[in-house]
Amino acid sequence: MIYPQKLNSKRNNLIVNLGLLIAIILIVINHFFKPYIPWAIIANSGIIYVWIILFYSIKKNINIAGHVLLQTIVLSILTVFIDYQLGFKLWSLDIIIPILIIIANITMFVLTIVSHKNFIKYAMYQLLISLFSILPIILYIENITHNKVMCIIASIISVLNLGLSLILCAKDLKETIIRKFHM
Q1: For 27, 48, 131, 165, which has the most beta carbons within 10 A of its beta carbon?
Q2: What is the pTM of this model?
Q3: Please, what is the end-to-end C-alpha distance for the chain in angstroms?
Q4: How far apart are CA 179 and CA 91, in angstroms?
Q5: 3-state secondary structure labels for all residues of 53-101
């Protein structure tokens, strides 16, 4: 029998320490050469993003829909942070977050079509992405963002995706509900 290779904790610690060293070097270089441009903070936020995704992927054994949800949330936070560091021109809220929501919904729809028998595994993530899709509309109603078209497109795609997923998987969903709740 072949066993999986054990992760070497010394090598993992070396990688983390190397990443921290690179982050500190970037901050020092930024401080001495271009202190008025926060490029080191932006680069370090990208490094932190990669760490979060790598550690989450290594430590957790979850399905693809969970990764889609995580990517959507973490990338949204990252782009808002970068936008804030560059003067908060709202491009992250007006354009990037609706595009991320559209991509997440399209990905979830493809997952539903490809593996409709496993829709129950994706249903909770689908619902959470749909709830996250309300964010651009709320931001537009509160006059924080000004791109009405992207907000509406993202929300419509989210509603269509959720509806089509439920229609395509209605039979499987009904069978699962009957089986789980003994109806």
Answers
A1: 165
A2: 0.77
A3: 43
A4: 47
A5: HHHHHHHCCCCHHHHHHHHHHHHHHHHHHHHHHCCCCCHHHHHHHHHHH
Pull the structure tokens for residue 172: 């499987």
Which H or E run includes 5? Answer: none
| Residue 170 near residue 116, CB atoms below 8 Å | no
Q: Are 172 and 116 contacting, i.e. CB atoms less than 8 angstroms apart?
A: yes
pLDDT tens-digit readout, 48-106: 887 777 777 766 666 788 888 988 999 999 999 999 988 899 999 999 999 999 999 99
Distance CA 54, CA 45 (A): 14
If one counts every other C-beta atom within 10 angstroms of the C-beta of residue 139, the result is: 19
37-59 core/surface letters (b: 16 or more CB in 10 A; e: else): ebebbbbbbeeebeeeeeeeeee
